[in-house]
Write a sequence for this structure.
């Protein structure tokens, strides 16, 4: 597997996570700030949100995320070892950022506050 295909895979994975983060934020907003309490209507609306967000946002985010990820990977590779190790380090950093966002969205845990308390 060459570096270009690995980069595309990493960008694709991070793009999926970014789209899910946007979708989660929209669904959480709907659950908290609207008057919908009927689970049938809420489920239908949330399914619509998934379609509305994932299709256009994925196409938009995939191009934007590719630009950002490519820039991020280049900067990380130049700041680190470069080549494949730098690409892996950039991907791990991106995964950790997404992990922290998901942890905050899904379980209301702020990783920075937890780490700060440990220090």
């Amino acid at each position: 597997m060459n570096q270009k295909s690995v980069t595309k895979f990493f960008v694709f994975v991070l793009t999926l996570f970014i789209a899910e983060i946007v979708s989660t934020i929209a669904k959480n907003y709907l659950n908290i700030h609207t008057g919908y309490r009927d689970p049938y209507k809420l489920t239908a609306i949330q399914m619509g949100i998934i379609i509305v967000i994932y299709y256009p946002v994925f196409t938009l985010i995939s191009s934007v995320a590719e630009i950002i990820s490519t820039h991020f990977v280049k900067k990380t590779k130049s700041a680190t070892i470069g080549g494949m190790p730098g690409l892996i380090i950039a991907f791990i950093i991106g995964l950790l950022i997404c992990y922290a966002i998901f942890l905050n969205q899904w379980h209301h845990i702020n990783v920075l506050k937890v780490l700060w308390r440990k220090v």
About this structure: The chain has a mean pLDDT of 76.
